[in-house]
Amino acid sequence: MSEKYKHSYRGYLIDHHSPDPPVVTLENLDPDEWERFFEEANINHLMLYCKDHWGSSYYNTKIGRKHPGLKDKDWVGTIVPILKKHGIEFNAYYCFEYDTYAPKAHPEWAVRRKDGQPLKCGMPANTSNAKWGMPCYETGYREYILGQIREIVENYHPDSLFIDIFGRALCYCDTCKELYRKEFGYEMPEDDEEMMAKNRDLERFLNEGAERMLDDLRSTIRQIDPELALTINFAAHYPRQIRNKLDYLFTEPWAGNWLSGAYARDTSAGKYPQLGPGDVSHVYNYQPDSIYRLAAAEIAAQGCRVFMYSEPMHRDGTLEFEEARKVGAAFRDVEKFETYLEDNRLVADIAIVQSDVADTLHVEHPILASSISRAKVSGAHREALLGAMKLCDYSKRTWRVVPELELSYDRMKEFRMILIPNLFWVNPDLKADLKRYVEDGGTVLVSGETGLCDDQGNALEDFALAELSGCHFTAKDETYKKNHWCAYIRPEEEPVWKRSPKTTPPVGEYVLKTRADGAKVLGTFLEPAVLLTDTTWVNWGNPLPGRDTGLPALYENNYGKGCVLTACFDLFTMINKDFLWVKDFFVGIAETYFVPRISLQTDLMNSLEFTCYEREEGRELLVHELSALARLTGGDTPLIDGGRLMVNRDYMQVSKAEMVYPEHKQVPVTYHEESGLSEIALDPLRIHAVYRIVG
């Protein structure tokens, strides 16, 4: 049994999916050089290839084929003793869905397209330079990969196991079509329109198939090592029933390291999340050291174990040591504050509701064939959730993502505001808990098409949360969608607009027509002066505001002791589409509707990032503060004002504050009796600082 995966904060993969000689020869592979690389990179976790995307193994397999450049070398067997010598976690890498060798050796194993031809990586749009083969799990390939996994676990005893390109491809082989027919009673859809109509069935079919594969994998490894830790790539984007069967969650970034780290942390259910960016390093065309250091700091500050991967191996097997130096510089930083990364509980005033099923209910294109492509692509709900994350982060309040099935009433009471971004179906339990939360004084912000579908994706006549919102749905209006700015808002004189410029801000793509039922209107829609066509336009840009429609754009509804805000437009997604006004508007919402436990006051809203954790049952706080300027400027790290941390006395009476990284020193605390706030002056900042606050 190994528990190294719980404490390894400095992970790395020498990424080398290697074609056969003469392209990649591996003739000068040298274990002593690899050992020096590990020491220079200062790692305590190594992901080591056992089988790559080409289908080549790097150990002596009796089932598959070993990379011919290895000749008589057992590379895994050579490296494992070095890892043990240095106490480095041995994470065995094995690729499932990409394998060029297997479907060449066994054509009957290939994933089939609708036309019967083998599916390859990058198809159908050829979006990838690589064209690896893709075998189907419902063939002899299943026993092939399970047999190789058995070899690896029995012979090399890894500390943990990583499965890449996991999932189930949409395959039209005879076996898959028969399985689909048996489960659903009709033929697997091939026409785009039918595929969209049957999207829920297709998603279920593929997810259940992936889950069965995972069950077989778990059974195989548990028979040999009952405690072996298992994960899959992009784990945060798989359904909860799959996430729950993993020992820890590994995810590659989909929204930058900072926000992706938060998402991975919050969907992991505390299972030692790990985030691994592959875009930090550009081997042969390096980024500055500060980019590496910031990436590592952002991942760690968001509660994830740090991991990086890149391609530092030359075609003959020798290594690029400039990469080791840069990774090592970042990891030596991490090593200095590792002691502050465990036994922490995130502080969050705002909850953002996340749903596994919402994007399956709102379908804009046929399901993607590749499992990894499906995991990467965001639907309308995840896009809105991403926007909510961006706005919360900009507001400098504390926040987190909460999966809807974890958001019970007792959990809701932890938060001072709940955001519901494009949650197309609101399940009855969530609805009942939200009602109770608002009655007891909570604040909820509902946006977009939340609650307009049933659990099968069928349109409802009214909002599921109409009673809470104090308004009713009448229609979705996309008349001006082509304009990009499809409407404008005329704000009422209300506190919620206090941070917004004095203008009529635009909204995008659609508006929801509604009627009030007790809710107060905080703004109304103006339609554009013209609809853009080949013969109608105004100047170069978007048409200017036209007549006031009188249709409410934003509501406030008092319900019990609490309040519900309803945006009759897709508020959260708009920040992803450069509707900049929503940033300060959201700050105004936060200031109007709740008093934060802890917040950061700064004029550098776009440049500073922070997270806050409780330790020792709330008697101690740890605050990570970061400057994003290295990323925003391409590497520059000028010294900038760290701002002021404000702690509400009702939450904690601060007795002492100190910086613990990058140096150890006391920082001043000022008490404001009238406001009940403790003000902590944070030091000027270059990349990352950690503060300890004691109550």
Structural commentary:
It is a single chain. The protein has 695 residues and is an alpha/beta fold. The protein is built from 20 helices and 31 strands. Strands 13-12-14-15-22-21-20-17-18 form a nine-stranded mixed sheet. Strands 7-6-5-2-1-10-9-8 form an eight-stranded parallel sheet. Helix 10 (289-301) links the parallel strand 9 (274-275) and strand 10. Helix 4 (141-156) runs parallel beside helix 7 (199-224) and helix 9 (256-266) runs parallel beside helix 10. The longest helix has 26 residues, at 199-224. The model has no long low-confidence stretch (mean pLDDT 96).
SSE layout and pairings?
Elements: E1 10-14, H1 31-41, E2 45-51, E3 56-57, E4 65-66, H2 75-86, E5 89-95, H3 101-105, H4 141-156, E6 160-164, H5 174-184, H6 192-197, H7 199-224, E7 229-232, H8 240-243, E8 250-251, H9 256-266, E9 274-275, H10 289-301, E10 305-310, H11 321-337, E11 345-346, E12 350-354, H12 358-361, H13 371-376, H14 380-395, E13 399-403, H15 409-412, E14 417-421, H16 428-439, E15 443-447, H17 466-469, E16 471-477, E17 485-491, E18 506-508, E19 511-516, E20 520-528, E21 545-559, E22 562-567, H18 571-574, H19 581-593, E23 598-601, E24 608-615, E25 620-627, H20 629-633, E26 644-648, E27 656-661, E28 665-666, E29 669-672, E30 677-681, E31 688-694
Parallel strand pairs: 1-2, 1-10, 2-5, 3-4, 5-6, 6-7, 8-9, 9-10, 12-13, 12-14, 14-15, 15-22
Antiparallel strand pairs: 11-24, 16-19, 17-18, 17-20, 20-21, 21-22, 23-26, 24-25, 25-31, 26-30, 27-28, 27-31, 29-30
Helix pairs in contact: 1-11, 4-7, 9-10, 10-11, 14-19
